[in-house]
Amino acid sequence: MATLLQHPGYEEEKLQKVAEKLLCREIQAGMLLLLMGNPQQYSYPSVFIYGHRSSGKSHLMHILLQELELPHATISCVECVSVALLFEQVLLSLFGCDAASLLPRSPSLSDFVRIYRQQCAQSPAKQTRYIVMEKAELLRDMDANLLPVFLRLQELVEDNVTVILLSEIVWDKFRPNTGCFEPLLLHFPDYSKGELQQILSKDCHPSYSAEFYSSYIKILLGVFYSVCRDLRELRHLAALNFSKFCEPLEEGKVKESDTHKLWRNIEPHLKKAMQTVYLREVSSIQWEEMQQMEEKETGAVRGLSAHTHVELPYYSKFLLIAAYLASYNPARTDKRFFLKHHGKIRKTNFLKKHEKTSNHLLGPKPFPLDRLLAIFYSVVDSRVAPTASIFSQISSLVTLHLLTQVGHDDQLDVPKFKCAISMDFICAISRTVNFDIVRYLYDFL
Predict the structure, then answer these.
(1) How far is CA 168 from CA 52, 54, 175, 187, in A?
(2) Is the pTM of this model over 0.85?
């Protein structure tokens, strides 16, 4: 690992510390070190790092800048709700509170560049300064000239400074229509199953052996990897269910090596935890108390193998229901089913010649993404924000072949999907969330 992080501009001992703290991101760390170059020399003005959530972007930057002792300012665009806060954080981190106090009450970009140049004249950079901006996609909602200025900040302030943007979306979604300085692009791919196993196994419980905890993580990934690849969520699920995994061991019923019996014990609880993926409605302690109460009331829970349908996260079930309704209902009937004041519509007058045949006999029809989401927000019980987790669950349904993507990946318009499940399957899914899907199907009016 250390050989991948060799660089003539940095001490070998510091690079060794970086290598020990970074797992499964050696290639990206080595590439970033090459882009950064020697600390005394000018670096590239701006770098754009993108990848899905929990792919190690912020962690890698934090370790590199801290261990190599490089002057830097780490800015969270979520916390900086105004441009004034953003400028203040940059000047405060790089030059101290005296520089930040020079900003007027409502600073402009010209004020920021002017004060930055003044501070550079007083304390010239001995090595490259770095400005790391997390959640950089929020910059698009600020002033239109803010992003182009930060991309070429090195030129404007005449200082050895590099701006590093961290984002979950691709650069094509950033590029302004008027054009701008193009940053260097660096992609962080998702962790593979083996890499997740390696990272999560490092959280080993001190009371148990590393092999025992590693076998638990392997079982956990075997259940959840198909629907969730978010490292933070998987780490939360691992901590949530580990005590239940260890119960037979603490009672003296099995040994650490008896993986089969441990799996049979944890199987029904992982099935229940599948419904809470991405949901944080209760704390870990409350979840365990609820599990114990349900066991006392209903007895043993049926295992995963006893079900004929696939267990899905809570919102994934509603996404699948919405997809089925979009595939088998004509688009013109959405107003009839999902609008409160739609007026009275009779089916006899609503039919056209080509609609006299049952939609279930004709098969599923393709539908755009925006229609799927519109139906989803109408049928789901609570208000849901359109977060990245909702879109990742749609891609998981495609991976599980429950949805089929229609057309090419590079199409310019909105992606289209088609539902690929049977009526019996969706009825079984609907019963688990207490949703009467037959009431919303046009064929059964």
Answers:
(1) 5, 10, 15, 10
(2) no
